[in-house]
Amino acid sequence: MKTTKRSTLLKKAFLAVATLSFGVASAQQTSGDVAKATDIDPGTTTTGGAVRVIDNRGTIKYLQTQNGLTLLSNTTNNVTTTTWQLGGTLTDDTFIDVDGNVFGLDGIELITTEVPSTDATTGSDHGTGTGYTILVRDEATGAVKKLLTSDLNLIQSGQESFTATAGQTAFALTGSPTLPSFSQVWVYRNGAKLVASVDYTVAGSTVTLVPGGSAPNDWAVYAGDIIEVQFVR
């Protein structure tokens, strides 16, 4: 059987592998020895193995793939073609550093009838669940994970009521939530809304009342007053 080797194709293959390798930081194996895969039989079709090549000085070398790349080698009409392509199984933690450049995907389908997933599980393969989840990034590790839409809290709100003591002005919310600006915080005294930035101030998780004013609008905090705080962020 005759096998044709094309130096141009090999150069392109080297370039593709090098480009993918240099574009990944702290990912695939970058030191030590990688075990050679089984030699590819030129007369068969396979998706893995080692391709034997000979450089311009007669040295035998091998090309193979791992960590998310797939190799397809087939022989048709006595010509063996080896193709490297995206897709496969990651064997190592993999990070791509865009280094300030844009990393984008074109041609993504737009959906208009989103149905949130209720049966998504950790590590599931496609086709094993229904509905949609949301891809998120773990800022601590950089890992890409998925999130149920029911667990995505884009809007947070809170409400808490206090029974004041005489002259009490500071009211710290349970759990120490960071309160937003005045336009998103509402404070009530015995059901009557207080004026933002006049009757109360907000700092961190604490609302501080500012009683006083001039008659007939002067007021004070008495024992048993109900102070209610509502917020949305």
Provide a descriptive summary of the structure in words:
The structure is a single chain. This protein is mainly beta and 233 residues long. Helices cover 7% and strands 27% of the residues. It has one helix and 13 strands, in the order H-E-E-E-E-E-E-E-E-E-E-E-E-E. The chain has one helix at 7-22; strands at 51-54, 60-63, 69-76, 79-86, 134-137, 144-147, 157-163, 170-172, 185-189, 192-193, 200-203, 206-209, 226-232. The strands form five sheets. A four-stranded antiparallel sheet has the order 7-13-9-10, with no helix packed on it. It has a three-stranded antiparallel sheet with strand order 8-12-11, with no helix packed on it. The chain has a two-stranded antiparallel sheet with strand order 1-2.
